[in-house]
Amino acid sequence: MLPTTAPQPVRGLVITEVVVLAGLNLELLVRRLIVHAPAPAGEILYFAVGVVIGGLALLRRRFPDRTAALAASAIALSLACSAVGFFATPLADVGGDPEVAASMLLVGAACHRLPRGFAAALAVLGGLAMASGPVLRYGGTSATLAVAVMWALLWGCSVMVGLILRDGDARRAAAQAAARDRERLELARELHDLVAHHITGVVVRTQAAGVILARGPEQELIKEIEEAGAAALGAVRRLVMMLRSPGQDTIVPASNLVETVEAAVAHGDNVTVRLAPRLADLVVTPETVSTVHRVVLESLTNVGKHAHDARHVTVVVEPAEDGRHLRVEVCNDGLRPGRVRRAPGGYGLIGMGERIAALDGRLTAGQHGDRGWRVLAELPMPEGGTSR
C-alpha cells in the first residue's frame, strides 16, 4: 500500500544545506571583511543580509507551514538591501553568493508547497530581487549585467525544481487516492459477493421455515430472525453503496438518529436520556448515525462491565454551542470516592476513538466529578445542514 504522508526531508539534505550556506558565508567573510579590511559599511550590510536570509532558508524545513512568511520576509529584505545599495557608493567586486543560494531555496520551496497564487507572486518577486540585485548594488557595468543574467538563470532553476517537486506530490496524492479507491471497491465486492450472499441465504431459509411452521409456537421467533436478517442485508447494501460512491454525502433526517439513541438505551433501567428539543430538525450523515449508536451502546456496555455500583446513567445528545458539532455524552456515578478508575483495557474505547477520528471528531473519556465517569464524543455536522 502506498504511504499516506509525504516522505520526511532527508537528514543528509539538511546537513548539505547547512554546510553550503555556512561555507559561502565564511568565504565571503574571509574575502571581504578580513582580506580586504577595513570593509565598507555596504559590505557589512550585504554580509548581514546574506546570513539572515540563509537562516530563513534553513527554517523552512523546521516550519513548513510558514514557508510563505519566510520567503516573503527574505525577498523583502533582499529588495530593501538593493534599494539601500542603489543610493550608496557601488563596491568594486560583485558578491552575494550566500544570499542567492538561500533565495533559491526559498523560491523553490514556495513553488513546491504554496497555493498557485501565492507561489506565482513570490516566484516573480524572488526573480525580481535576484535579477536586479547586482545592478542596483554594484552599478550597471558589463560584469554586473553578466552576474544578473546568471542569477536570473539560477532563479529559473529554483522555480523549475520547485514545480517538479510540486508535480511529484500531486502524482503521489493521485496514486494514493487511486489505491484507496481500488481497496474500497475490492472491499465492496467482497461484501456484496460473500456477506450479502450468505445473509440472503439465511433470510430465504428463515422465510421457508416460517411457511412450514406457520402455526407453530416458533413463528414469532422465526419472524424476528427474518426481520433481523433483512435489516442486516439492508445495512450491508447501504455500506456497499457508500463504498462504491465515496463522494456522495447522503444526508438523512435526525429522526433516524433519535431512533438510534432510543434503541441503544432501550434495555437500560437506570438510564436517563436527554435529547435536544430541536434534535429532530438536524440533519446528519449516515456515518454520524452509526457512530453515535456505537458510542452510546459501547459506553453503556462499559458501564455494565466496569461500574456495577452505578445508580444513575445519563445519555445526552445535543448540538454543541458552536453549532458545528454534535455532542454525545454518557455519564455514570459508578466511581467510588477516593478511587481513580482507568479507562477499560479492552478495545471498546479504541474502536470508538478510531471511528470518531475518521469523522474528524474528538473523544474524551475519564473521571468527571467526585464519583462520575464520562464519555464525551464531539462529531462534526455537515456545513449548512444544521436544520431542515
From TrEMBL:
Entry keyword annotation includes Glycoprotein: no
Q: What is its EC number?
A: 2.7.13.3
Q: What is this protein called?
A: histidine kinase
Q: Which residues form the Signal transduction histidine kinase subgroup 3 dimerisation and phosphoacceptor domain?
A: 183-247
Which Pfam families would you find in this protein's record? HisKA_3
An annotated Gene Ontology molecular function? phosphorelay sensor kinase activity
Which cellular components does GO assign to this protein? membrane
Reactions catalysed according to its record: ATP + protein L-histidine = ADP + protein N-phospho-L-histidine
Annotated membrane-spanning segments are 12-34, 40-59, 68-88, 118-136, 142-165
Protein keywords: ATP-binding, Kinase, Membrane, Nucleotide-binding, Phosphoprotein, Transferase, Transmembrane, Transmembrane helix, Two-component regulatory system
